[in-house]
Each structure stands twice: as C-alpha cells, then as structure tokens.
C-alpha cells in the first residue's frame, strides 16, 4: 500500500527496521536485537561511505570529549556506565543514515509507529479509565506494565513508565499520521485509509489529553502551527492562535476577567498548565530547584563537568531526594559532560536539522512532495522542546526513536543534496 512505492530500497534491512520498530514498545529486547543486526549489516555493506562521511569525524570528536569527561567524573564508574546512553547511538545513527536515503524509505519508520499508537492508546485508556493492570509476569517478560489509573495516578502512561514519555510517543504518531493524511489528500488519494488515518489522529489527540502532559500539549500546538503555516491553512492558524491566547489567559497570572475565561476553557487545561492541579509539591521536586542546582554544577566545573549519571548522586547528597534527571537534557549534559561537549553536540545536531530544512525548502520551491520530511523535522524539533523540560534519553525506546528520526532526516537530505550536485 505505502511500502510498494519503494523499488530500489535495500529491502531486507528496511523490512527488519520496520519489524524492529513495530515490536520495540512491547518487546524491547528483541526490537534492539533486530536493530543491532541492521546496524552491523549496514556498517559491513557501507563501511567505506560511512567512514568517509564528515559526520563520522564530527561524532568521533564528540565521542572523544565524552570519554575525556568520564576521567574527570565525581563518580567515575557511573560516568563510564552512562556512555551506553550516547556513544552506541552514534554508531546507530551513522548506520541508519546509510540505508535510509530517499522519501519512500521513510514509510518504514512511519507505519509501525502509527499502528503501535492504536494499541498503546487502547491499553492506556483501559488503564486510566477502567483501572486495567497487568500481572507481574508481563513486566518480568516484556519489561512494561499497566498500573491501574496510570502513572502518576490519573494520568495515562500505558506501556511507558510515566505519562510524559508516552506523550512524546503519541506526538510522534500524531504528526506522522497527519503527514500521511495530507500527502494522500494532496495526491488526490481517497478511501478507507484516509478515514483510518483521521481516526488515528483523533485517537492520539485524546491520548495526549489523557496524559495530562504539558510538554506534550506544547509540542502538539507548535507542530500544528508549523503545519498550518507551511500549508497556508490560515483559518487553522487563526484558530490555534486565538485558542492559545484564551488558554494562556485562563492559566497564567491574575488577569482581568480571568474567572470568566476559566468558565469557557476546560479546567483540565488551565488547572494543569497553571500547576493548580498539583499544588504544594516538595521544593526539591520542582524543576526550578533542579535547574538551579545544575547551574551551580556548571559554574563549578564548566569544561568537562561532573560525569555522566552523576547528577542523581550529587542531587541526592544535597537534598536527600533521588531524581533520575534534572528535567532538562541540555542543563544535564552541561553539568555532567561540560559546556564544550554540549555545545559540540548541539552544533552537530543543528547542522543535520538545518540540512533537512534546506532540503525541505528546496523540495517546496521545486513543487516536489516534502510532506513526510516536514513531519520528521517537526517531530525531532518536538523532541528538542520536550528535552527543555524533561529528558527522553533514559527511555531506551524514545532514545532509539530520536536517533532513527535524525538519521532519516540526514540520509534523505544528504541524498537530495548529492543528487542536485550531480545534475
């Protein structure tokens, strides 16, 4: 249906990637096992092109900086252990970049995520509304569990350990589904598939509401604004702008007529955004406290930081509260690996994204379909926004997905650039 458009793809590797992403949320071990095989195969088949890629040298430099930071760590053992969250994914990025090289390859990532979102939402709604919970053997064999009424309580988390990472997965599925629907509409393709895609989009929006994740809501709004601006859907742009203004009016500050506006806007929106839904939280659990602590760490060791995974140790020593991360990836990286390493990583990823945006602009100017690439860029930027207020690095499924999406942007845009040069 979608995949038959691909005539020149390295079918075996991409089909395995499809299967890997399909089972990843539910059976992470086998998903990773397949992914490991794909990576090894890609390095074997494309070794020469990979090692001569400029990005390979950039990631080698970044790897060197991360390793150096481990030698300066407060707790060296934890720092070396923390490497597993970063360096293996550089190898994965370079491998996948070499096999995802044209627009038709993007379907192999999009379709399993959309399909999974239906199952994940179904399980999540049962969990948060009907009190579904799974027996212990599910957790022991599959690595995930449903907890009656969600985690935190009252917020849908489904197969994820918390509502916030679930919201990021649903945002990914939402904009992939929207991109496919718009693409089919632009190509005058109609039928049952469009209805299924539309219903999936609605289901993911409902799921996002049930996660009660402010982060997820902000990313969704930004994504819709980008789509509305790109396709010149001015009515949607105005509607989103007015709605955002009213919700903000109801949520923040002590504005005139706020009580009246709060009667118009559903309370689950303004009460969550204003944080009135969860008052009197301990000071040590507030993001502002965590960020201040990170800034102190950066100020004391600005160059090579305190070592990966050392934030939790240091924060617990200071506040007697354990936190897995400081709810900001960039502050965490700066505190743990130093400002130099963090800036280098941002520059490398920024360069990849910029090349993707240039390719998207060019495709639009040449009246070529770039809708799928637009969704990839929007989603990855959404990951960036998410990591301003949370950290997706420690959820293995989301970390894999982030690097797969970035590799897809890089592979497609690089192929487009090379094609233009050769013309």
Calculate the terminal CA-CA distance, rounded to whole Å.
31 Å
Unreliable stretches: 5-9, 419-423
What is the alpha-carbon Rg in Å? 22 Å
Helical fraction = over 70%
Secondary structure category? mainly alpha
Number of strands: 0
Overall 3D geometry?
A: globular
Mean pLDDT: 91
Helix and strand sequence: HHHHHHHHHHHHHHHHHHHH
The number of helical segments is 20
**Biggest sheet statistics:** none
Provide the β-strand percentage band: under 5%
Structural account:
- Mean pLDDT is 91; it is low at 5-9 and 419-423.
- The protein starts with 10 loop residues before the first helix and ends with a helix.
- The radius of gyration is 22 Å and the shape is globular.
- It has 423 residues and is mainly α.
- 72% of the residues lie in helices and 0% in strands.
- The chain has helices at residues 11-23, 28-45, 47-51, 54-71, 76-82, 87-99, 107-130, 136-142, 163-186, 192-211, 214-230, 234-251, 258-264, 267-273, 287-300, 310-319, 329-337, 339-365, 371-389, 396-422.
- Helix 6 (87-99) crosses helix 20 (396-422), helix 9 packs parallel to helix 11 and helix 18 (339-365) packs antiparallel against helix 19.
- The longest helix is centred in the C-terminal third of the chain and has 27 residues, at 339-365.
- It contains 20 helices and no strands.
């Amino acid at each position: 249906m979608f995949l038959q458009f691909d005539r020149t793809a390295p079918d075996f590797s991409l089909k395995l990637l499809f299967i890997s992403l399909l089972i990843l949320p539910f059976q992470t071990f086998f998903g990773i096992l397949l992914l490991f095989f794909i990576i090894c195969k890609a390095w074997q088949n494309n070794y020469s092109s990979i090692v001569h890629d400029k990005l390979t040298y950039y990631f080698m430099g970044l790897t060197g900086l991360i390793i150096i930071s481990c030698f300066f760590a407060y707790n060296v053992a934890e720092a070396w252990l923390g490497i597993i969250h970063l360096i293996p994914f550089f190898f994965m990025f370079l491998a996948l970049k070499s096999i995802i090289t044209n627009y038709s390859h993007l379907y192999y990532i999009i379709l399993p995520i959309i399909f999974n979102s239906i199952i994940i939402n179904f399980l999540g709604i049962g969990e948060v509304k009907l009190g579904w919970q799974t027996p212990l053997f599910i957790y022991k064999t599959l690595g995930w569990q449903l907890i009656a009424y969600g985690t935190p309580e009252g917020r849908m988390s489904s197969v994820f350990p918390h509502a916030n990472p679930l919201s990021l997965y649903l945002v990914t599925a939402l904009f992939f589904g929207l991109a496919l629907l718009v693409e089919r509409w632009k190509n005058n393709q109609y039928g049952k598939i469009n209805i299924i895609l539309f219903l999936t989009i609605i289901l993911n929006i409902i799921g996002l509401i049930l996660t009660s994740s402010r982060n997820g809501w902000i990313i969704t709004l930004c994504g819709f604004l980008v789509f509305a601006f790109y396709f010149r859907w001015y009515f949607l742009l105005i509607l989103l702008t007015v709605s955002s203004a009213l919700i903000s009016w109801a949520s923040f500050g002590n504005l005139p007529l706020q009580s009246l506006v709060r009667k118009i806007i559903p309370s689950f929106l303004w009460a969550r955004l204003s944080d009135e839904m969860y008052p009197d939280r301990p000071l040590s659990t507030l993001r502002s406290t965590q960020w201040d602590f990170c800034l102190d760490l950066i100020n004391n060791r600005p160059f090579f930081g305190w070592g990966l995974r050392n934030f939790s140790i240091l924060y617990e020593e200071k506040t007697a509260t354990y936190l897995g991360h400081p709810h900001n990836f960039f502050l965490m990286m700066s505190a743990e690996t130093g400002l130099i390493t963090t800036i280098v990583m941002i520059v490398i990823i920024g360069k990849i994204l910029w090349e993707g945006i240039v390719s998207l602009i060019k495709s639009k100017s040449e009246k070529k379909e770039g809708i799928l690439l637009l969704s990839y860029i929007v989603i990855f930027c959404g990951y960036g926004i998410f990591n301003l207020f949370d950290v997706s690095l420690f959820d293995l499924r989301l970390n894999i997905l982030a690097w797969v999406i970035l590799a897809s942007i890089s592979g497609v845009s690089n192929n487009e650039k090379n094609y233009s040069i050769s013309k």
